[in-house]
């Protein structure tokens, strides 16, 4: 693989990568990786540069979008101080060409090739998946215990608990009183995590959100609507 780095006015650094298997010029703008251009064997780097110039306006628009996206995304590296409830993240380089994940009782270890850029999407995605898996392990350990404790205190009965990586809800309760709890509940402050669990337990009695439902929640939380508003400030999306 052959590479060439070129500086362009208004665009900045562009990395041209020669790939024999590709037949067409292709521009990509990825998080924390800048502008990359895949150059097929039958196209010169000079012609690829002219292609970039013709696509200049489009590239600048995409760079603006990408910059806004990068502001809201966490970039993990060896200096990142990140912790779940029970584990700390550790990134290491190794001499192998593969990315390896080890999750034990105290740490989330990520091993990536020493020649690789930690900003590479494959490495960043591996880190995120590993963190979610650690959260899943912790959620399956902590949430059923918390749910059982709250159910006993307030006299609720439920069927089963399922821990999921849901993208739209913190929790739900089925007609058969099966509880679905989002693994991301463990990211919340404890009082809000308990509120969501009580919210779903209350649905074992009242299946809708009418006045009796909120009255029952108020008996257990003093001000359920206030907690609900506080919960709305938290996002299910992490990155």
Kindly summarize this structure in a few lines.
The chain has 239 residues and is of the alpha/beta class.
Folded structure, characterized:
The chain is α/β, with parallel strands linked by helices. The protein folds into three domains: 2-71, no CATH class; 88-133, no CATH class; 136-231, Zincin-like (2-Layer Sandwich), CATH 3.30.2010. It has six helices and ten strands; from the N terminus they run ββββααβββαβββααα. It is elongated, with a radius of gyration of 24 Å.
Give the strand tally: 10
What would CATH call the architecture of the largest domain?
Answer: 2-Layer Sandwich
Main-sheet strand order equals 1-2-4-3
Query: What letter string, H or E per element, gives the SSE order?
Result: EEEEHHEEEHEEEHHH
Broad structural category: alpha/beta
Overall geometric form: elongated
> What is the CATH superfamily of the largest domain?
Metalloproteases ("zincins"), catalytic domain
Please report the distance between the alpha carbons of the first and last residues: 32 Å
Domain unit count:
3
Percent of residues in beta strands:
15-25%
Outline the low-pLDDT stretches.
none
Radius of gyration: 24 Å
Overall residue-averaged pLDDT value: 92
CATH topology description of the largest domain: Zincin-like
Q: Please report the number of helical segments.
A: 6
For this structure, the quaternary state is single chain
Taking the sheet with the most strands, its summary is: 4 strands, mixed
The percentage helix is 25-40%
Instruction: Indicate the CATH class of the largest domain.
Output: Alpha Beta
């Amino acid at each position: 693989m052959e590479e060439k780095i070129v500086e362009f006015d208004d665009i900045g650094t562009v990395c041209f990568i020669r790939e024999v298997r590709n037949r067409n010029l292709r521009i990509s703008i990825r998080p924390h990786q800048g502008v990359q251009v895949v150059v097929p064997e039958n196209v010169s780097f000079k012609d690829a540069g002219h292609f970039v110039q013709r696509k200049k306006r489009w590239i600048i628009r995409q760079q603006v979008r990408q910059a806004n996206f990068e502001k809201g995304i966490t970039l993990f590296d060896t200096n990142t101080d990140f912790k779940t409830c029970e584990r700390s993240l550790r990134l290491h380089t190794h001499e192998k060409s593969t990315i390896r994940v080890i999750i034990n009782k105290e740490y989330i270890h990520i091993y990536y090739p020493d020649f690789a850029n930690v900003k590479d999407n494959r490495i960043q995605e591996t880190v995120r998946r590993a963190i979610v898996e650690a959260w899943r392990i912790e959620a399956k350990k902590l949430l059923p215990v918390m749910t059982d404790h709250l159910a006993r205190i307030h006299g609720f009965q439920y069927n089963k608990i399922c821990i999921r990586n849901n993208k739209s809800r913190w929790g739900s309760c089925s007609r058969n009183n099966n509880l679905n709890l989002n693994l991301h509940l463990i990211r919340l402050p404890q009082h809000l995590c308990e509120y969501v669990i009580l919210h779903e337990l209350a649905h074992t009695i009242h299946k809708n959100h009418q006045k009796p439902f909120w009255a029952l929640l108020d008996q257990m939380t003093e001000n359920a609507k206030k907690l609900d508003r506080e919960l709305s400030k938290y996002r299910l999306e992490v990155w």
